[in-house]
Amino acid sequence: MADFDTISKTHARAYPMDFVNHCLDFDQDKVTFVQLITPEQPTIEMHQADMLIKVERNSEEVLIHFEFQTTDSYDPEMALRMAGYIIRTVETYRLPVYSSVIYLRPDAGRRDPGHYSQDLTKHRIFIEYQVLRLIEIDGEPILDAKPAGLIPFTPLMKRPTGVDSEEWFRRCVQTADSIDVPNKPAYLGSLAVLGNLIYDPETISNIILEETMNQPSIIEYWTEQARQQSAREIARENILEAIELRLQPDASQTFKPALEAIDDLQRLKQLHRAAILAENTEDFRQALETNEN
Q1: Are residues 13 and 132 in the same domain?
Q2: Closest to 170 measured CA to CA, from 149, 186, 191
Q3: What is the pTM assigned to this prediction?
Q4: 206-214, long-range: CB within 8 Å, 24+ apart, which pairs?
Q5: How far, in Å, CA of 270 to CA of 203, rounded?
């Protein structure tokens, strides 16, 4: 899961205005890029937002927040997570915030209400955000517009009526291959990795081999990404198993979100050893916080 999340954030940070211009309904307002904001290092209790962009909208500085989510979030639920991100962002930067969560998997986000609410007399809370499910976004206008930041996500978008899945993936690859980017193999490899959420590996490799000029390097990139993803997933499973067996059976769910955010395989291996050696959950919590700092 972390690989999909990492690729999403990498493209959003490389092409922030593609996401602003195509994901937010600002109509004809003049919106100009100011800067990317890097939040402070997160802790276990307070995760950082995936993407925070400062822009000027009609000469007023505002913040654009994007959160990438591969699957549904239950602990905590997405509405509560988004409310936390929004409130902390407003408190820290004292600017208006436009907040959105982008769901990658076609089956994710269906039950996300798009708001957090508390309906208590004289203590009402209502915090709203935008829910964007890629499967509900028409992909054809995106292919036509060719925003470099969004093209790798088009295999996950809604395809035109009458176009089957293989033909749609082929069009996505063709469009991506036509775009001038600094590292074309990595760019197309990102499309392949994201496409792996819904397409089988054989279909992806066959179409890439047929449609691109950089066949070996792209397949090599994709294969290496898949190998690293598998190794990280195994490492996380080993850590969670050690926590369940040695510490508390339900403690693994407490640490799971923080572990899913870690991409460094060596760091995961160190945490596996820490889970084996920990005498209690607090020992492992300290090891995790030490590795994050």
Answers
A1: yes
A2: 191
A3: 0.74
A4: 207/166, 207/169, 207/170, 207/173, 208/173, 210/170, 211/170, 211/173, 211/174, 211/177, 212/173, 212/177, 212/188, 213/177, 214/184, 214/185, 214/188
A5: 36
Asked which of 136, 162, 195 is the last residue of a domain, the reply is 136
**CA–CA dist 119, 239 (Å, integer):** 39
203 with 241, same domain: the answer is: no
Q: In 94-162, which residue ranges form alpha helices assigned H by DSSP?
A: 139-145
Tally of domains in the chain: 3
106 within some domain:
yes
Residue 221 lies in a domain: no
The string of pLDDT tens digits covering residues 220-256 is: 665 666 666 667 777 888 888 888 877 776 777 778 7
Domain boundary among 180, 213, 246: 213
Measured CA to CA, the distance from residue 263 to residue 229 in angstroms comes to 9
In-domain check, residue 223: no
Q: Describe the chain by its helix, strand, coil percentages, rounded to 5.
A: 55, 15, 30
CA 260 to chain centre: 11
48 phi and psi angles, rounded to 5 deg: -80, 155
